[in-house]
């Protein structure tokens, strides 16, 4: 706008000089000045009062422009979801969540938790079998007590005195109770493993034959066609949890009998120095119980 005003001033000054000297201007220059002046006045009359970066007022029906040129395709929305209007990238565009739900980013998924729980059950039954067979109380001199009797030489496989022949009644009773609950816990853990074995067999048969075996019995839940995995580890979930809770209870009772014998010191002089200590079988029972106790809450929450 400023250069147009300067041109107008120069044109008026030239006309004044021509008038003073009595000379006439070139008709072509006069027509150019007339057109230029008319365009300038028209622009000033039509302007809405706003100017852009080049001091140029926007015309009626014309959008206001900045000092920089708009990129190609600025008037059309981009087809790229990561690019906004005008072709510029949008940094804060919300991206859709990854597939897989809330467990996709989890460290332990439900399937992995089932595998962990299976491994814990295998370790538990292994420790229970070894703990039931090995020494519960070691006696100074190489002797020991197991759930099955007294050994003068704990490294041998033969028993010096069987449990039912022990003369100390409290010790005999507690060893028998400990052996009974230890065996019960072994069978309960075996029942949990049967669910996993049954699931593995059904999956193998499904992959081999390409169809679900015995679909009427195992392939649906109340006629709704639920997967086999849901039947065994979702529908039977609380059965597994109940069995695991019973296993923990039985194992606690089992090694609690050993603790009772150790603390009470039945049939021996309490004033005499202690001549026994906890054996490796007792330690294995406690380790198996703690492993199952730690894995059970995760199995309940994640499955």
TrEMBL record:
The chain crosses the membrane at residues 116-137, 175-197, 238-262, 282-302. Residues 1-23 have a biased composition (Basic and acidic residues). It comes from the Eukaryota. Residues 1-105 are annotated as: Disordered. The keyword Membrane applies. Residues 24-35 have a biased composition (Polar residues). The keyword Membrane applies. Keywords: Membrane, Transmembrane, Transmembrane helix. This is Uncharacterized protein TCIL3000_11_8970.
């Amino acid at each position: 706008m400023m250069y147009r005003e300067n041109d107008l001033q120069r044109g008026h000054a030239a006309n004044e000089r021509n008038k003073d000297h009595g000379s006439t201007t070139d008709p072509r220059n006069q027509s150019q000045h007339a057109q230029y002046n008319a365009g300038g006045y028209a622009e000033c009359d039509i302007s809405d009062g706003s100017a852009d970066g080049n001091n140029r007022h926007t015309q009626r029906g014309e959008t206001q422009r900045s000092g920089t040129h708009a990129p190609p395709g600025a008037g059309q929305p981009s087809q790229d979801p990561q690019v906004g209007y005008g072709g510029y990238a949008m940094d804060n565009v919300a991206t859709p969540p990854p597939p897989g739900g809330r467990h996709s980013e989890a460290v332990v998924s439900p399937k992995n938790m089932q595998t962990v729980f299976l491994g814990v059950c295998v370790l538990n039954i292994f420790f229970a079998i070894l703990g039931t067979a090995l020494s519960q109380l070691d006696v100074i001199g190489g002797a020991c007590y197991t759930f099955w009797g007294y050994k003068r030489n704990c490294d041998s496989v033969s028993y010096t005195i069987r449990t039912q022949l022990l003369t100390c009644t409290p010790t005999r009773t507690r060893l028998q109770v400990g052996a009974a609950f230890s065996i019960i816990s072994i069978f309960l853990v075996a029942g949990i493993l049967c669910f996993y074995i049954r699931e593995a067999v059904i999956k193998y048969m499904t992959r081999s034959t390409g169809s679900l075996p015995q679909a009427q019995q195992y392939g649906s839940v109340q006629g709704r066609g639920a997967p086999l995995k849901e039947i065994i580890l979702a529908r039977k979930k609380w059965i597994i949890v109940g069995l695991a809770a019973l296993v923990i209870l039985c194992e606690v009772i089992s090694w609690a009998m050993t603790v009772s014998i150790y603390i009470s010191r039945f049939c021996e002089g309490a004033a005499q120095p202690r001549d026994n200590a906890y054996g490796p079988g007792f330690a294995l029972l406690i380790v198996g119980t703690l492993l199952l106790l730690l894995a059970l809450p995760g199995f309940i929450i994640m499955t």
